[in-house]
Amino acid sequence: MTGEAGQRDLIATAARIFPGGVLSRHKLDDDRQLVFVSGRGAHVADAAGREFIDFTCAGGAVLLGYDHPGVLAALDAQARRGTHFFGLLNEPAIRYGAELLDVLPVGGQIRFCCSGAEATFNAIRLARAYTGRNKILKFEGAYHGHHDYGMWSYNRFGGDAFSPAPNSAGMAAGIGADILVAPYNDVAAAEDVFRREGSAIAAVIMEPVQRMTAPAPGYLERVRNLASENGAILIFDETVTGFRLALGGAQERFGVLPDLAVYGKSLGGGLPLAAVAGDPEIMALASVEAWQNDPRGVFFSGTLFGNPMACAAGRAFLAALREPDAFPPFLARAEALKSGLARILRKHGVEAHVIGEGPMWRLHFGDPGRIHDVRATADKDRQRAFDLGLLDSGIFVRPGGGHYFSMAHTDEDVETVLRAADRIAPRL
């Protein structure tokens, strides 16, 4: 069965077998549900045969688009050699790891895993083991994965002095005592936390560009200094910004180096792959010898870590990014989209802000203040109305969320979005 009827049947099956009828936490309205069946370049098609220009980029995982020829060739070749091996060593993982350390500013050593959440969890574990401390400082509104350390104060706001708020039931309540929360881009608040808790802080974990909002001038440098002065480990969660803002991610863009950096999303060229990289002295605690013989040794292991298919795809992905003309047209098109949207909003007298650093974008209806205020004070109804207008125009975005830009998007894709925005804006 194909077409609309076939898609409805697939959606009905999903509703029966998956909690909530979806694979993750995202769900479209019932009358807009769709099932993806193919992707080409920056476009996706659903089971009903409709095509969309896609600005989710598979949640940011397909920076090169859905069918980059280098990635496809690498996958085909590796599939014929073996899709997975026992977790000792495999050639694609060794070669990709070495190539990554050549381009990642943080340098040092690297350990692969499968998701950004696994990577942030293990980075925090390494920091606690290395320092012998327990407390973790994060920033309100930041997302570091689904684990019990990541799901504090992600999308619930307020509380006295930014006290941590859990964002899921079932988390170990005791972990909250070790979580410290501060507002992003607020130097005074970070200094206050370190003044009170500095000797107990194992790590600061942060998105250097938090939820698409860039750091204020000097902010990352001050957080770097505070961590160093107090013997804490600075972890940059570059799951989103890695390879997207520049080949060296936010570290290259802003010139600040962490002790450990986390990578995910696009790292595997569209396949599940993530990594922790950084200071060899810290990373050494993840070795087999340390885990077996050192009281500070960290268990950092998984059956599919360093999967050769994902690493082969990742090598092709990195090779494409290292081409001299990879970034300039990509970043220029993203800026053309954002500046065009801002122009259209002004033309129609719509009070909104186009936010997003580099090839990331969204519209924000409200005060563009600090990040913890932006998400709390936004006019979500108007933002959702705009995004649904794009969706109904054949432009796939996640309603109410942030949007990505890929290297496969074209000038025509940009113009299509701007024409749609010109039709939608008067209704806002």
Give an account of the 3D structure:
With 428 residues, this protein is α/β, with parallel strands linked by helices. The protein has two domains: 69-321, Type I PLP-dependent aspartate aminotransferase-like (Major domain) (Aspartate Aminotransferase, domain 2); 327-396, no CATH class. The chain is built from 15 helices and 14 strands. It has a seven-stranded mixed beta sheet with strand order 4-10-9-8-7-5-6, with helices on both faces. Strands 1-2-3-13 form a four-stranded mixed beta sheet. Helix 7 (219-229) links the parallel strand 7 and strand 8 (233-237). The longest helix is centred in the last third of the chain and has 21 residues, at 327-347. The chain is globular and about 60 Å long.
CATH homologous superfamily placement of the largest domain: Type I PLP-dependent aspartate aminotransferase-like (Major domain)
Proportion of residues in extended strands: 5-15%
Question: What's the total count of β strands?
Answer: 14
Q: Any idea of the CATH topology of the largest domain?
A: Aspartate Aminotransferase, domain 2
* Cα distance spanning the termini: 39 Å
Rg calculated over all Cα atoms: 22 Å
Mind summarizing the main beta sheet? Answer: 7 strands, mixed
Helix segment count? 15
The CATH class of the largest domain = Alpha Beta
What strand order characterises the main sheet? Answer: 4-10-9-8-7-5-6
> Residue-averaged pLDDT, rounded?
94
Number of domains: 2
Low-confidence stretches: none
SS-based structural class? alpha/beta
Helix content: 25-40%
Assign an overall shape.
globular
